[in-house]
Design goal:
Strand order of the largest sheet: 1-2
Number of strands: 2
Oligomer: single chain
Length: 71
């Protein structure tokens, strides 16, 4: 994993529309984080933080098979 301290050290600014892109992808089907990363072509850390925020805001859920889905 990547902690928030390490992410703060990076110079790249995360894509603010990434959570919206993820929600749009999950409307079609469940996906794991690698599939989401491959389609969005976003850095792994950005994907992880976007997914965590979406989970914390109860917009998505994670299935036992590590697939993310809309709630």
């Amino acid at each position: 994993g990547v902690c928030s301290v390490c992410v703060a050290k990076t110079n790249s600014k995360p894509d603010e529309k990434l959570p919206e892109k993820i929600l749009s992808l999950l409307k079609n089907r469940e996906m794991d984080s690698r599939e989401i990363q491959k389609i969005t072509e976003s850095p792994e850390t950005d994907i992880i933080f976007a997914l965590r925020d979406l989970l914390e805001n109860d917009l998505i859920s994670v299935k036992p098979n590590n697939q993310y889905a809309l709630k």
